[in-house]
Design brief:
five-stranded antiparallel β-sheet; 27% helix; four-stranded antiparallel β-sheet; globular; Creatine Amidinohydrolase; alpha+beta
Amino acid sequence: MIKIKSPQEIRRMQEAGAIAELARRACGELIQPGITTKELDQAAYRVITGFGAKPSFLGYGGFPGSICCSVNDEVIHGIPGKRKIKEGDIVKIDVGAVYMGYHGDCAATYAAGVISENTQKLIQVTRQSFYEGIKYAREGYRISDISRAVEAYTVRNGFYQVRDYVGHGVGSALHEDPEVPNFLAPGRAGHGPRLAAGMTIAIEPMVNVGTFEVKCLSDGWTVKTADGSLSAHYENTVLITKDEPIILTVGKDGRHA
């Protein structure tokens, strides 16, 4: 069931979103060769708990980290640990914060040192595909309109949207209805849930260089590209209104990744 949020619920989600964004940004600023993924996780934990919130991911389904930290061909759900970031790596930071019972969820991809022109393009296309999708995050449109826009921009630029994992509703639960795919399944144009003011959704493109296919590792969490090619991830929590959509994962200074 899709939940329509009250003004009070939206205010709480704005607070949660601001905290999640500040944790995302803190991690991004720390990423450089030599830092470990565990150190990034600890930084996010300090930011989130420093505002009286809790990490949404910590303990979720048994997940052991405060962030998902996925490197290079890891798409999502990378477990923070002893791994040291190297020159030329790209690092995906996915972070959620729960504050007064409501969640904010966001992600971004960062470069450690110098990366190739095509890798930089991958990161930029992934981020921009979110903004292509949000153009349709308006009352009266359908989820499938977002999906079509995200995929069309990605394919036009020579990359692939992951199909096994999708965006989702967000609220008092980290994952709510509806699902928000980053691709348009055959025959789904003009179908699916219609957007209404008060809906809150996480739009999160996951873009691969070589194929949309992925595999989950034996740890039960880490998802990699099937062919070992690079992947990027970008996400924000978005409020549907009667006018322009509002990004809820915006820091207290009004900025976001």
